[in-house]
Write a structure and sequence with these properties.
By secondary structure, this protein is an alpha/beta fold. It folds into two domains: 191 residues, FAD/NAD(P)-binding domain (3-Layer(bba) Sandwich), CATH 3.50.50; 154 residues, D-Amino Acid Oxidase, Chain A, domain 2. It has 14 helices and 17 strands. A hairpin with a 5-residue loop joins β8 and β9. The protein binds flavin-adenine dinucleotide (FAD). Flavin-adenine dinucleotide binds next to α2, β11, β15 and α12.
Length: 427
Amino acid sequence: MTHTAYPQSYYAASANPAPERPELQGETETDVCIVGAGYTGLSTALFLLENGFRVTILEAAKVGFGASGRNGGQIVNSYSRDIDTIERSISPKNAKLLGDMAFEGGRIIRQRVSHYGIQCDLKDGGVFAAFTKKQMAHLEAQKRLWERYGHTQLELLDAKRIREVVATDNYIGGMLDMSGGHIHPLNLALGEAAAIESLGGVIHEQSPVIRIDRGANPVVHTARGRVKARFVVVAGNAYLGNLLPELAAKSMPCGTQVIATEPLDEELARSLLPQDYCVEDCNYLLDYYRLSADRRLIYGGGVVYGARDPANIEAIIRPKMLKTFPQLKNVKIDYAWTGNFLLTLSRLPQVGRLGDNLYYSQGCSGHGVTFTHVVGKALAEALRGQAERFDAFAELPHYPFPGGRLFRVPFTAMGAWYYDLRDKLGI
Ligand SMILES: Cc1cc2nc3c(=O)[nH]c(=O)nc-3n(C[C@H](O)[C@H](O)[C@H](O)COP(=O)(O)OP(=O)(O)OC[C@H]3O[C@@H](n4cnc5c(N)ncnc54)[C@H](O)[C@@H]3O)c2cc1C
């Protein structure tokens, strides 16, 4: 069979050493079979193993092959739509539970990094940067909302103060969240995989799941093997394809691109981001950037469908980077890559069950580093028989994409165009 390797990203080039994990061959049995070794699958597995379950993960390619090993590395609290939207969408009891969980993912990551000694360049501090008064007013409201849920490590930044943390004149202000921060995303995934194996969990790479027999005794099939399990957790997100048509019908994979510069000299790097915080701006099609441990600027932005050729990616993202930091005009780009996240119509995640023993979580719509970690805990709790927090996620409404599969791309491309225009007009 063909071997699927990591894309040629900066992360793959600087990954910590990891073992080759064998393809599944033959039949095996476990308590929980998880499809996909991104953060959703890995986080769920780790909580399950810590609670005495046997776990087998089947990964189509490599640990962290999907969004989890390619993303901006930004630990951003809350969800792609904030708690006020959630409060309007579901029962007050469940909205309160989700509001309380909105800041837990970052704590889980930090706890894992320290408990399992994961080397992933964890740094504290994330900035939301505003271009317009409207965006600034939104950040002020966001601060009040988050403080209502007990989240207090926040500071509003005026024009002078934001210039002290990001060397660009583009922003009129922002908000600093000291419980945000950044990581080397692939090394976090690899560290979690090693922790899973240290607890007896099994991970098979190069093992795409091609069929799931549902029912009282589910069986998960790959080309050369099968896993019998009490429970199945599907965590394939934007890379799942049509394995479960119910999930494909209500979500849309979207591409977003990232570049990494050559290592910057220390003075230049420190002049751009003196405190080494990560930054994302407040546009709907946002730019996000940060420094790596070896002082590259890692810059991502926008949503472009396709654009898989690195030269093409550089042509799209470099101008965005230079708009923020014109001082980098002579800096070389060493890496350019693309990754898929999964968009839902509401931009809220879709979490649920298909039958009694098939669970899924998908569609965090752009912000997923913290969500995937906390939903992994909620999934593990549900399999242990404590489903209160899982059920709170499951109450979030799921909508099909209007027009079905064929119309999804034009529809959301149009939506993205609409929001891009809104950002440009500052409305
Ligand atoms: C370029 C980019 C930048 C981003 N930046 C940020 C950021 O800075 N901060 C933030 O919070 N979020 C960010 N996100 C979003 C975040 O990375 C994702 O929400 C999160 O990683 C999703 O994790 P996951 O485990 O659900 O999915 P994934 O990480 O995509 O993992 C799914 C895994 O399932 C496997 N799989 C799929 N189908 C099968 C199958 N049939 N059989 C076996 N395995 C299968 C895939 O190979 C893959 O490894 C970004 C996303 C992208 C693409």
